[in-house]
Amino acid sequence: MPSTRRVKVLAAALAVAVCTILYLSVRRLALPRLEFNDSSSQDFYSRTVAALDKKQASDQEVAQKLHDIKDAAKAQEPVVPTTPRKPVAATIEDAKPIEVEVSAHAEAQDSENPTKGKGDDDAKSVAGRKTMLKGGETKDLHSGKEAPIAVDREKEKYPAGKKVEKEEKVESAEDHEVEMELNSILKKGPIIIFSKSYCPFSAKAKRILLEKYTIVPAPYVVELDTHPLGPGLQAALAKSTGRRTVPNVLVSGRSIGGGDDIEALDAGGGLIEKVKGMAGKRIMEAKLTEAQ
Q: How far apart are CA 53 and CA 159, in angstroms?
């Protein structure tokens, strides 16, 4: 019977042999699969590179065709010769007068005209029909009669329109100042009395609204004869309310009349109702004064 040590050696040798056989078998089976995978990857890579090269060549071909089309279109465009335009005279004064030859018949008639003298040497032809003399008169070449030239007085008064433009600017600035002042006054209260200190009708309207009645807030009085913009304010009121005389009583920016109108409303007992109806909640109190 073999010894225990020999049995162990034989078992180990047998195990190594079995492992070697198994390893060789597995390797032999797996090798064709790896070779197949390598060949497949190489084939896919080759097809991808070929496709990219083909697309790049196609893009280059398309770009070249577009470039050729543009060049052909430019070559077919007609060349339009450009000629520089002559500058046009800016104004009538800059244009040169037209020189016209005078006929012999007209010269003979001019020689018979007793008004012809040394001053005729300085005459200028205008449109071939008349001659302009030094004295500002014209002479018809066919009739030989002289006629005065119509002078534009506005151009003589305001050369080149400079003064007119300046005056318009001054007036517009003044109108703007008046408009701003009028808007500022209308914000002083719901009732505004445009008055003049020496006017008896204004005094009557102020007495009724300020003394006979207690109105809160109290009516605001503007004396146009002492206000620096009085004439302008009166003109603006005439334009906006249609009333140029004083007094001119405004409630919420609308005129209710002058001294006689206020007196009539007071006599009829409708003044408070009129004021409240037009001013609304802006009038906090409106009643007859208790002393009355």
A: 82
Give the Cα separation of 196 and 231 in Å (integer).
11
The answer to whether 193 touches 275, Cβ cutoff 8 Å, is no
Residue 36: per-residue pLDDT: 57
Q: What is the pLDDT of residue 118?
A: 45
Helix 259-268 and helix 271-279: axis angle, to 10°?
A: 110
Sequential DSSP letters for the chain: ---HHHHHHHHHHHHHHHHHHHHHHHHHHHHHHHHHHHHHHHHHHHHHHHHHHHHHHHHHHHHHHHHHHHHHHHHHSPPPP--PPPPPPSSTTTSPPPP-PPPHHHHHHHHH-TT-SGGGGG-EEETTTEEE-TTSEEEETTT--EEEPPP-HHHHHSGGGHHHHHHHHHHHHHHHHHHHHHHHHHTS-SEEEEE-TT-HHHHHHHHIIIIIEEEESPPEEEETTTSTTHHHHHHHHHHHHS--SS-EEEETTEEEE-HHHHHHHHHHT-HHHHHHHHHGGG--EEEE-TT-
Cis previous bond, 190, omega within 30: no
pTM as predicted: 0.44
* Contact between residue 199 and residue 205 where contact means Cβ atoms under 8 Å apart: no
To the nearest 10 degrees (0 to 180), the angle between helices 200-207 and 259-268 is 30
147 vs 283: CA distance, rounded Å: 73
Note the pLDDT tens digit of each residue in 121-148: 444 444 444 444 444 445 554 555 555 5
**CA 124/CA 3 separation, integer angstroms:** 158
